[in-house]
Amino acid sequence: MKILFKLCTAALVSVAIAGTAQAQDKRIALVVKALGIGFFEAAAKGGEEAAAEIGGVEVIYTGPTDTTAEGQIEVINSLIAQKVDAIAVSANDQDALVPTLKKAMQRGIKVISWDSGVAPDGRMLHLNPSSNALIGNMIIKLAADHLPDGGDVAVLSASATATNQNIWIEEMGKVQDQYKGINVVATVYGDDLADKSYREAEGLMKTHADLKAIIAPSTVAIVAASQAVSDAGKTGEINVTGLGLPSEMAGHIESGASKSFAIWNPIDLGYSAVMLANSLIDGAEAGPGAELDMGRMGTLTLDDNSEGAMSDPFVYDESNIDDFKDIF
Amino acid sequence: MDNTGDGITGSASGKEAGSTLARIPDHLAPWWKRALLNWESMLLLVAATIFMINSFASPYFLDPWNLSDATFNFTEKAMIAFAMALLIISGEIDLSVASIIALVSTAMGFAAQLGVGIPGLVFVAMCVGLLCGAFNGFLVTIMGLPSIVVTIGTMSLFRGISYIVLGDQAYTEYPADLSYFGQGYVWWVISFELVLFLVTALIFGILLHKTRFGRTVTMIGNNPTGALYSGIRVKRVKFILFLLTGVMSAVAAICLTSRLGSTRPSIAFGWELEIVTIVVLGGVNILGGSGTIPGVVIAAFVLGMVTFGFGLLNVPGIMMSIFVGLLLILVIALPRIWARLASG
User: Fold this and answer.
1) Looking at CA atoms only, how far is residue B303 from chain A in angstroms?
2) pLDDT value, residue A15
3) Residue B49 lies in a domain
4) Which of A31, A148, A163, B26 is deepest in the core (most CB within 10 A)?
5) Across the interface, which of B56, B70, B262 has its CB nearest the CB of A11?
6) Which of B50, B180, B269, B275 to mutate to test the interface with A (most CBs of A within 10 A)?
7) C-alpha separations of B54 from B31, B206, B296, B299 in Å
């Protein structure tokens, strides 16, 4: 009983302390797909940055242990119970969270989704890290930036049925004419498997003698292609670019197999999510056509689905890779 | 090969009999001592403690609506746990329950797309649940395969079918009224799921503790060979238990599908372990032969309250997993340590 008594007193004291600190703070919950993922830890860092900038905001960084919708629902239920002011969620399932998030909104909690969206019924707005058009443009721009005289480039994608990649490649096709002298000679598929992507990259190098760049809009393919290029001794001759993770690409940036690549910046994403949630708490209205403040990231303009794109994908090269390689 | 599937139970109980002399007491301990020292009382104490700590630790805990929300963390799992308890008491196990949920939910989604109404959806769910249970039961009782192996196989099989049907898609078009099962309230904060949970607890409690069938289940778990030679149709009882588990998985699937309003093949992923955890924490002997439904009910509340309490304090989920893991080891180890101390 003595131990129990001590436990209870300790709990009481900690609640008292926490209670006073929380008294007038706005509480914004940043709910992620699962805890322990570098990308989301970095987003939390961005969230904290936004909170510090606004002042009087407490960010609750939370999420389930596994990337399941059921786990997220449990977490969101406990946030509703705590009567937080806003919930910003990166969803494991765009439909399954809707009933729970609706309940949150009925109880006066502002709900937004970011990174991975929730169906329109379950949130007030969705923050995309970027837009398909911006990504499509960025991947070809990255290749063109290092080819002032133009040249042949090839695309190494995920699978032929991968929705995201196909849209990005399509968007890339739309802006291709703006990059003079860049010829896209082939599009091949590595199915997001490291070994298959590697073989496809080897194949590209063999069939296209004048190949100057490989665009890989997949985090698996970009690593495999970089490896294939350095193994073939063509570092400096063929530049690998596309979408990749700094932690996996650091070595290839260092070796020069890849001069630069892009991906959304999770810090900016977490920062913007908290900024947007705060705007809503302060009375801003979300809806088609609305413009909301995102602090240093500018303003977010919502489309007909109440979705908005944060910015161009963030470019990583030798100047900043060291700052990000340990993050995600 | 009548004792297949009971190999674990048989050998373990045999070992115990060999190593320690069974002592038959000439009188029972006084009733109050028995009432205080049994598993359920201990669990109840744990539950009360957790409830107290929670209400001290978070100002939001003692709110009727919040407590009501918290029950959703365990009601569906617990409903399967009742059937699982009977199965484990009989010396078998079913690890495919979460996958049955996935398959049932997928079948419901498919039927809903074809315009089937709510009674039809419930019927489809029950049929698929029964079929899954029958398939497991067939492999275990008629083919004579060990249940742990069979249900690890069907765990992949049932969910695999869902993946083939749905891929990365989801069924989201359910009749609006279906949401009552998982989101409706019978009275004030008392949800439909909570009522269903209590009713099934009562049914299974009566089934296990007050009927001849229940006695048979316990007897089979204790001594399958003995039961067989006493004229009990062991295989038939076990087959029925697999059917029951399939049906309860279907009931849980209806509630969960209704609560989520959608079906994805990953639905209820990993629940089988949480369900077995509830059963074992409830004092059911994992080797079969003993266990009670009240124990399972209290265990469900304990786990639900712990999850919710940790959630309110925003404790990372991994701490929760560690806590449950330790609790489980403790729960399994304690009686053995106790027995060793008592006999030594």
Assistant:
1) 13
2) 46
3) no
4) A31
5) B56
6) B269
7) 32, 32, 21, 16
**Domain A2-130+266-311 is in which class?**
alpha beta
* B148-184 per-position pLDDT tens digit: 999 999 999 999 999 999 987 889 889 989 989 988 8
Three-state SS at B143? coil
* Structural domain includes residue B8: no
Q: Residue B150 belongs to what domain range?
A: 61-339
Which residue ranges of chain A lie beneath pLDDT 50? 1, 4, 12-23
CATH code where residue B290 lies: 1.10.3470
Q: How many domains does chain B have?
A: 1
Best to test chain B binding among A3, A35, A78 (most B CBs inside 10 Å): A78
Q: For residue B308, which residues of chain A lie inside 8 Å, CB to CB?
A: 74, 77-78, 81
Q: Is the dihedral of CA A153, A158, A164, A170 positive or negative?
A: positive
Q: How big is the CA angle at A81 (ends A77 and A85), to the nearest 5 degrees?
A: 100
Domain regions of chain A by residue span: 2-130+266-311, 132-263
- A vs B, Cβ pairs < 8 A, gives 107
The residue assigned the tokens 């930036």 is A145
Same fold, A2-130+266-311 and A132-263: yes
The answer to whether the Cβ–Cβ distance between A12 and B321 falls below 8 Å is: no
Instruction: Suggest the residue from A12, A58, A62, A70 to mutate for an interface test with chain B (most B CBs closer than 10 A).
Output: A70
In a domain, B283, yes or no: yes
In a domain, B167, yes or no: yes
Global pTM?
A: 0.78
Give the gap in angstroms from C-alpha B73 to the nearest C-alpha of chain A: 7
CATH topology of domain A132-263: Rossmann fold (3.40.50)
Measured over the CA atoms of residue A315, residue A321, residue A325 and residue A326, the dihedral's sign is negative
